[in-house]
Amino acid sequence: MITKETNPPIAQAFILGAGMGSRMAPLTDHMPKPMVSLDGRPLIDHVIERLKKVGVQKFIVNVHYLADQLEAHLKSHNDPNIIISDERGQLLDTGGGLIKASDHLDDAPFFIHNSDSVWLEDETKPSSNLARMVANFDASKMQTLMLLADREKSLGYEGRGDFILNEDNTIARRPDTITSDYVFAGVSIAHPSLLQESQEGAPQEASKGAFSLNKLWDTSLQKHTAFGLKHHGLWMHVGTPEALSDAQERINQAKSTSL
């Protein structure tokens, strides 16, 4: 993939913060998962800081589980550009949540970022992973650009992978019969046309409100407008308290070696 150094910044992001976080129990018994602390700060603060470093100025965060806590924390940032998409009445899943949040999105590409997506950058590389995503996003042919981590080199991931990365950097879902090299790292850039798929009836579930982003991605995959970019560094799958502890240990190790 050829880097386009002249690409404008991606100025907006949708952060997924509404999930129940059941696998992170008991830490999430009394707090939403985005508020779980890693390296002394809530997970969602790491995400917001990372996005700000690459030029994101507007953040839409959906809330549902223990929404009052997350909303109060986000308001403590004193940033009017952090906007709440309220799903207290109904949890809309990732796709339905995006459609609801789209009322706050401008007609321009945007990040979609899981609130629990955690990684260590490869300090030998000149650009961060998100900066590389911005530089490589081609709005003329991409509906989605996904950050893909190396399955075997990731921390805490025990699955069989998510995607196959083709030579032209388009991606395909892993067939059930094989293991693939890459796992979705929890962050993507979306073109506004991705939202139009729901309006055109791509997922029938859209009419019911709640549906998965996978429905929109499947349509993009069929059109060959879904692309992948290899993650540089250590991606960490933080889905349980044990995985959170492992991630903190790796962060501590990285800090000690940089001294």
Task: Characterise this structure.
Strands 5-4-1-6-11-8-12 form a 7-stranded mixed sheet, sandwiched between helices. Helix 3 crosses helix 6. Strand 9 and strand 10 form a beta hairpin. It has one domain: Spore Coat Polysaccharide Biosynthesis Protein SpsA, Chain A. The protein is 27% helix and 24% strand. The protein has 7 helices and 13 strands. The chain has helices at residues 43-52, 67-75, 93-101, 129-136, 193-199, 213-222, 241-258; strands at 12-16, 37-38, 41-42, 58-63, 82-86, 110-114, 117-121, 144-150, 163-165, 171-173, 182-190, 226-230, 233-237. The longest helix has 18 residues, at 241-258. With 259 residues, the chain is α/β, with parallel strands linked by helices.
* CATH topology-level fold name: Spore Coat Polysaccharide Biosynthesis Protein SpsA, Chain A
Number of helices: 7
Strand order of the largest sheet: 5-4-1-6-11-8-12
By CATH, the architecture is named Alpha-Beta Complex
Largest sheet: 7 strands, mixed
Write the element-wise H/E pattern from the N-terminal end onward. EEEHEHEHEEHEEEEHHEEH
Mean pLDDT: 93
- CATH homologous superfamily heading: Spore Coat Polysaccharide Biosynthesis Protein SpsA, Chain A
How many strands? Answer: 13
Strand content is 15-25%
Helix-residue proportion: 25-40%
